[in-house]
Amino acid sequence: MSWLESGPSSAPRVIVWLHAFPLSSAMWTRQLEAMPDGWRSIAPDLAGLGQTVDHAGTPLIEDFARDVDALMSTLGVESAVIAGLSMGGYTALALHRVAPARIAGLILADTKSTADSPQAKAGREEMLKVVEARGAGGVADEMMPKLLGRTSQASRPEVSATVRGLIQSNTPTGIARAVKRLRDRPDSTPQLASIAVPTLVLNGEEDVIISVDDARALATGIAGATLSVLPASGHLANLETPDAFNAAVLTWLGTLPGARA
Ligand code: MLT
C-alpha cells in the first residue's frame, strides 16, 4: 500500500484522507499542507489506484475499508478523523461497517449514503466500456465535465490539468475494478443512525454528481452533523476551492472535543 503523510508521527490527532474516483492520494496535497500543528495526516492510495496494489478476486468497496483499517494498525493509529470525498466517502461509510472503532470523527465531502440507482449502474457499464476501449484518457474525457463545477471549467484551467493528470496516471485495470466497487456498493443509509461521532458534511454548490440535496439528506441522517456548502465549487471541492474547503475543515476540527486546530 502507498500513502502520503504530513505532520509528525507523534502528533496527538490523526486525520485520514480518502480520495475520489478515479484519482489518488495526490488530490489531497493542499489539505496535507494546510493541517495545523498537532495533526498528522495520512492519505492512502486506495487499492488498484495510485501506487497501491489491488486485491485479487471480486472487487468490493470493503476492500478499500479493510486496507485503511490495516494501514492504521501498521502505523500505530488507533482511531482518526476519517475524511472521504465521493468514493472516499463511500469508503469511510464502509469502514464504519467493518471497523467502526477506527472512526473518531467523519468528514464526508461530495458524497452520499445511497447505493447506485439502476440508471447509475447502467452508467457504470458504459464507463467499463470506455475504460476498455479508450483507457484512462477516455475516462478523463468522459468525467472531466462532471468532476469540475462550472466555475472551475470556465476559469481554473490549472485544476483541469491537475485532475486530468491524476486520472491518466491510473491504469485501466485499476479504474475498471474501482468502477465495479462503486457499482456494487451497498446502501449505507440504514447505518447512518448509528453514527455517533462528530460529522461534517461538505458539498460543492456546483457539484453535478452529488447534489446539495444529497448532501443535506446525508447530514440529516447523522445526528448532530454539520452541513457546509461551498460556493463556486463542484464535485472536487478540495481541489477547486482548496482555501474554502480547508477553512471549513479547520473550523470544524476546532470544534472537536480537546481540539487544538
Ligand atoms: C467519485 O468522485 O469518487 C465518483 O464520482 C463517485 C461516483 O461516481 O459515484
Task: Explain what this protein looks like in three dimensions.
The chain is an alpha/beta fold and 261 residues long. It has ten helices and seven strands. The chain has helices at residues 29-34, 61-74, 87-98, 118-147, 150-155, 157-168, 172-184, 212-221, 237-240, 242-253; strands at residues 3-6, 13-18, 39-44, 80-85, 103-109, 199-204, 226-230. A seven-stranded mixed beta sheet has the order 1-3-2-4-5-6-7, with helices on both faces. Helix 1 links the parallel strand 2 (13-18) and strand 3 (39-44). D-malate binds next to loops.
Question: How would you briefly describe this protein structure?
Answer:
By secondary structure, this protein is of the alpha/beta class. The chain has helices spanning 29-34, 61-74, 87-98, 118-147, 150-155, 157-168, 172-184, 212-221, 237-240, 242-253, and strands spanning 3-6, 13-18, 39-44, 80-85, 103-109, 199-204, 226-230.
Beta-sheet strand percentage? Answer: 15-25%
Cα-based radius of gyration, to the nearest Å: 17 Å
Give the termini separation.
Answer: 29 Å
What ligands are attached or bound here?
Answer: D-malate
| Number of beta-strand segments | 7
Total helical segments? 10
Question: What overall form do the CA principal axes indicate?
Answer: globular
Helical content class: 40-55%
Order of helices and strands: EEHEHEHEHHHHEHEHH
Average pLDDT works out at 97
> Main β-sheet: number of strands, strand sense, barrel status?
7 strands, mixed
Q: Which strands sit side by side, in order, in the main sheet?
A: 1-3-2-4-5-6-7
By helix and strand content, what is the structural category? alpha/beta
Low-confidence stretches: none
